[in-house]
What we know:
Elements: H1 20-23, E1 26-34, E2 39-48, E3 53-57, E4 62-68, E5 71-72, E6 81-85, E7 88-97, E8 117-118, E9 123-125, E10 132-133, E11 138-145, E12 150-153, E13 157-163, E14 166-172, E15 182-185, E16 188-194, E17 197-203, H2 211-228, E18 236-242, E19 247-250, E20 253-257, H3 258-261, H4 270-276, E21 285-286, H5 294-309, H6 313-327, H7 345-366, H8 368-381, E22 386-387, H9 389-400, H10 405-413, E23 420-430, E24 433-442, E25 449-457, E26 460-468, E27 472-478, E28 483-488, H11 507-512, E29 516-520, H12 529-537, E30 541-544, H13 550-555, E31 557-561, H14 566-572, E32 582-588, E33 596-602, H15 605-609, E34 623-627, E35 630-635, E36 643-646, H16 662-669, E37 674-679, H17 684-699, E38 704-712, H18 716-723, H19 729-735, H20 738-741, H21 747-759, E39 763-767, H22 770-779, H23 786-789, H24 801-815, H25 823-847, E40 852-858, H26 869-876, E41 880-885, E42 897-899, E43 914-919, E44 922-928, H27 933-937, E45 944-948, E46 951-952, H28 956-963, E47 971-979, E48 985-993
Parallel strand pairs: 1-11, 17-18, 18-20, 21-22, 29-30, 29-31, 31-33, 37-40, 37-41, 38-39, 38-40, 41-42
Antiparallel strand pairs: 1-2, 2-7, 3-6, 3-10, 4-5, 4-7, 8-9, 9-15, 11-14, 12-15, 13-14, 16-17, 19-20, 23-24, 24-27, 25-26, 25-28, 28-36, 32-33, 32-34, 34-35, 43-44, 44-45, 45-46, 45-47, 47-48
Helix pairs in contact: 2-4, 4-5, 5-6, 5-7, 6-7, 7-8, 8-9, 17-21, 18-19, 22-25, 24-25, 25-26
Amino acid sequence: MKKYIILPLLLILFVSSSEASTSCPLYKLSVSFDLERNLLKGTAVITLQEDRAITISVGDLKVLSAKVNGRPVTPDAGTDLLELKGRGAAEIEYEMTFGDGRENGSLENAGVVSANLVSGKGISLTRAWYPSVSGMALYHLEALMPEGFTGISEADDVAIASSADGRKFSFTFSNPLNEITLAAGKYTELKESFNGISIYAYFFPEDARLGKTYIEYAIKYIKLYSGLISSYPYKRFSIVENFLPTGYSMPTFTLLGRDILRLPFIAETALGHEVLHQWFGNSVYVDFAKGNWSEGLTAYLSDHLYEDRKGNGRQYRKNILTDYASYVHADKDFPLRDFIGRTDFASKAVGYGKGAMVFHMLRKLLGDEVFSNAVKSLAKQRQFQETSWDDIRSIFEKESGKDLEFFFSQWVNRKGIPAVIIKDPAVTVVKGVPTVSFQVFQNEEPYSLDLAVRITTDKGTLNKIMHVEKSRETVEIPVDGDPREMAVDPDYDVMRRMPAEELPPVISRLLGDSKRVIVIPDEQKELYGSFINVFRSEGFEAKDEMDITDEDIRSSSLLVLGNDSPVLKRLFGKMEAPGTGFSVNVRRNPLNTSKVVAVAHASSREEADAVGRKIFHYGKYSSLRFEKGKNMEKNIRETEQGMRFVLDGTVRGIQPQQTMHLDEIIARISQKPVIYIGERHGNYEDHKIELRVIMELYRQGRKFAIGMEMFQRPFQKAINDYLAGGVDEKQFLKSTEYFKRWQFDYNLYREIIEFAKAKNIPVIALNQWSEITKKVAKEGLDSLDYLERREIPEGMDMADEDYKNLLSMVFRSHASRDSSANFEFFYQSQILWDETMAQTADAYLKKNPDYQMVVLAGSGHIMHGYGIPKRMWRLNAKVYVTLLPASQTSEKDIADYVLFPEPLRPPATMKLGVVLKETEGGLRVDDIIQGSRLRNAGVKKDDILVSLDDWKVEAIEDVRIFMFDRKEGDTIRIRVLRKKFLSGYQAVDLTVTL
């Protein structure tokens, strides 16, 4: 039979001169514990000192007996409520079995747990562990602790008395409270004093070494806030370690989970937040029925203050805006007035983040001195009283002398935040003064905002505050000097939605997305097993990497496991080599920039197991690296700071007299491993430049191959056969389907091909199947079947935003021709086109490392290096040079060399002078052009063309192949089939001189 510890009921009268001592119930609570049974037994005596009524809820507690004014009662069925009226007392004996401390808590709500704990590990009682009363009460708690246990609760004074059954702890608190908490364990106690305040650290023996550091920081923060606000409101403050992962602050102590407490930065940062709560939340109470303001104010005067003093206030505020964008979607948004406490990332982003920004904006509106005086008045005037947003507004209005109804109405009562859009920034000269003008738009109901504008000129920086309050406003700002750049809200002083270019790719955007997919590697499932389970338990959908479609990528934020996943190769081509341990790297999702792609890589299962749950604490970072569960590196990827606009780009010019001759350019570039020459396909002069470079490289004795966009990869054998003399030129053109797939006059390229053939220079077909690129342009990569996918590169970098923007302009300029066109599919097809050419050229150089490569392609695939050059460099890091014709020179840094060739007339290609149409019966003459020699030769409309000389004609490309090298004066034989009078066809042979 286990010995059961019972604490006798003690009725202790409160002595207080405060008004609350008579208006509030007196609550005497006595408890004891049976650790082996995880059992608490308690007696609650609740006394009313005046005529009033209160309700008492017993919740799930097991009531052993209950009396009101000495008469036995039973809680109402279904409500678990008792009612106490008038002067008198209620006495309730109860017991409850609690958990054993196995609850890990929610990763989305770290520091908040619903479980209570009664076990040999320790005691943690924070929720529904005694009969609760409506409203506040004056509490006195007595707890009989098991052997070796030390108890902590809200208290001005603690009395400890030893008995045969253990030590009795009596906790006296002279001010009313909404609730009380009890924690206990086999603690090592450390105590210091500061200005008459007793500072305690109650840590488990294995963490006792941390006690001194925590006390030092607690003293630092008490000293800080005593100076900024008012004297510390209590006689004692305790830092208490808990087995459960809590992060609570109660009057006179804070209860920190051991995993939280052991983090190296908690004492220096988060502890200050909990100390500040002794003023706001724990002495100025929160009227929860009207909204919790204390988390926002505390976050602003602690976490934000510390970063601001280090010069990082702007980044802290940007993190707030990022968290809001990441977590607070339409279905999770609510007014700040409705915030009670955090339950997930979204509620924290509203209550803590938006709340902090409200106080920041209030300080910017009223000024530092008024804000500081109002905070001090709040602490003094509302001490030990429930306080609402309306009370806070009243104090700030009194201190400032301003009506703040508009401010609190839009920021506290209204859900959401404004989206500010700046359009049409321009510089004009108004009455001789340079003036910056722009349009400011707000969506939906506009806010009243003060937005900082920073304009940089050649003479310095101008800072202005613009007030906007309409859906659309025009702003004009005169400046001194020549305006260069403008930034709106560069320091993040306004709570607003950031545009895409400001929003960094961070972990919070992954965690907060409404659709999140964890991509499971095909060959390393065991390595990431427990890691996957953590994210599955938090609502991530798990998919095998081979099942991920482009639609999955577009519609989701991805957590990709393994640095060599085929999903990553499809998006980024090549990932950086990961460091040791465990790393996470977040990038913008190339297929949908409102989403992100996070890459997690572990060098062992142990590394992955040690990190899974920790990632949820690092939401503001873009990249992380851990070793054995310890964070070694963390970074935020830089993005635009504020809404930025270039007002007057730097103008550069050239002196034509200083241009160099093509021979000099060739001399400079001849040793580059890769030479890209851009062309306008129909411009003969561009092809002559290509030929000249090729001829000079050959003259120098260079070993090189010519990579050509004009031929598609499946026809490489046909090219090789022709260059080796195995087939004639016509068969070469037919076998490569040149006129069907490229269509530009072959005479534009013939000299290059013939020179390569004569000098035994390899020609490499770079291009992708046109059937595949066209299909992707129309239906996207997801439309490709298994065999088609085998033809495309495994790695494709879709993350170049500059290239995407350039292609977007190209797409828009042609979109009117095809209303069904889809830019994302067009973009995918262009990337596929570029990647195929880059990877084909790279494959040749890898097989022939002593060769150079001359790439001939359209200028669009070469300009700025976006298309082929940077992709090939990603694969082999070979130095390259780019040459482009001058028609593209309107853009800066478009190429290494811009060429100015004189226009040349291309070689003439003879025409038959007929319009041909491919039909099931053959190639039919659909029309004969006026003046055509074929009309004179006797060719008639509806004739079926059979052959030209001995060249069989079945398609239009056959005619083009035959005609490309005909010259004026040549005589050709033509055979046609002509309809007979009644039925059938007869062969007709004709002769024509061109």
